[in-house]
Flagellin
Amino acid sequence: MRLNQNLSSLNIFREHTKILKKQSTALEHICSGEKINNSGEAPNQIAKSERMRIQIRSLQMAQKNVQDGVSMAQTADGGLDSMTSILHRIRELTIQYGSGANSENDKLSIENEIKQMVAGYDDIAKNTEFNGIKLFDKKDTLNEEMQIGANANENVKIPFKHLTSKDVGIDELNLTNLDETLEKIDSALQQVTDHRSKFGALVNKFDNVLTNLAEFELSTQSSESNIRDADIAEEMMEFARCNILCESGHAMMAQSNKLPQDVLRILENVRVR
């Protein structure tokens, strides 16, 4: 039995301090929802978690890029559909022009309508745009690749192409040479439909990429959650356990702190005798 150093009480206090620290950590995990709140708790795990968080945010932005790509391709498809319809009408009028039953007035009306149709075609070709980007009359040097992944070299080439009436060869149609005019119109139709098929294939590619990115993001979030997120039920059990141990520590310290008083009582008995 020692008077100057109450070793029993000191040991209990040391253990009590450890329990208080664990209780504080469990409470912090419960409040934040995360089991790693600073790098000191798990340096390797938090580094892995941060890398996953960067990947997740990159995947989310890549999905936005792909959705923009789908919208752009759909805009292009709408413009190409209108351009195809106009070319079909120009071809019909050209065939009609070749009828031997047409009067001069009929032919003049057909020529005027074809000119109007070509002008309408050019309006669509020159003005179809997405977010300020001309899709069929690209005048500026633009980046023709779209980032569709979270990492380097995960991109797709956008099939920009000039499709004005001059580019496809229908800006000057000489109806007196019917065969040559039909060949020009057919060539223009082939160019437009080929380009439309490229955008159609691009939409399909974007749809598949979007599905894969969403699945990859979900799996990465699940892995990151296993590393970073706290199990609230487990943390509540730890908090309750620490709370019981703290109360027990208080009771034990109260008992151990009575030991010096026992020494005093012994000394008092000696003095009385």
